[in-house]
Design a protein that fits this description.
elongated
C-alpha cells in the first residue's frame, strides 16, 4: 500500500511491479489510483478557479461512471466550493495555521497531568519549532515568552 500512496515518478521498478500486482489482485483499486492521481494533477496544474471547477466536475462524473463512492469528498466540496476554489487564485492555503492548531490539540491531549496553563504554554512554544531557539535560554526566559503569549492570546488572564 505504501507504493499506492507515493508519487509514481518516485517509485522503483520493484515498487511499480508490486503496485501492478496489487492492481491485478484488486482491479477496482487501479481506477481509484488513477482518480487519486487526477486529483493531485488538478490541484497542481489548474491555472485558475474556472479550470479547476470544470476539471473537478469532469472528475465527479468519471467517479460516478466508475461506480466509485466519492460522495463524502464532493459533499464537502459542494459546501465549501468557494473557499476550495479560492486556492486556485493565489495558490495559498491555511496549512500553516491548521498545523499549529493540530499541534495545540495534540499537546492538549498529551498534557494530561500538567498542573498549570504556564506549563502548557511552555510546551506549546517548544513544540512549535522554537526548541532550537530556546537552547541556551533560561527557564525564566521561556516563561516570560509564555506569559507574553498568554497575555496576547488570552487577555482574561492578565
Amino acid at each position: 500500500m505504501w507504493a499506492f500512496r507515493r508519487d509514481p515518478e518516485g517509485l522503483t521498478a520493484e515498487e511499480r511491479q508490486a503496485l501492478e500486482g496489487l492492481f491485478e489482485a484488486i482491479p477496482k483499486l487501479k481506477e481509484l489510483y488513477r482518480v487519486r492521481l487526477r486529483f493531485k494533477e488538478i490541484f497542481d496544474t489548474a491555472r485558475d478557479r474556472i479550470t479547476a471547477a470544470r476539471w473537478l466536475r469532469e472528475l465527479r462524473r468519471e467517479t460516478e461512471r466508475l461506480g466509485l463512492d466519492f460522495s463524502p469528498f464532493f459533499s464537502t466540496y459542494d459546501r465549501w466550493k468557494t473557499e476550495i476554489l479560492n486556492y486556485f487564485d493565489a495558490r495559498q492555503t491555511s496549512a500553516a495555521v491548521e498545523g499549529i492548531n493540530n499541534k495545540a490539540r495534540v499537546i492538549t491531549k498529551r498534557a494530561y497531568g500538567l498542573k498549570s496553563a504556564d506549563s502548557l504554554w511552555n510546551r506549546l512554544i517548544l513544540d512549535l519549532n522554537r526548541a532550537s531557539e530556546a537552547i541556551g535560554w533560561s527557564i525564566e526566559q521561556i516563561r516570560q515568552i509564555s506569559r507574553g503569549l498568554t497575555a496576547l492570546f488570552d487577555p482574561s488572564r492578565t
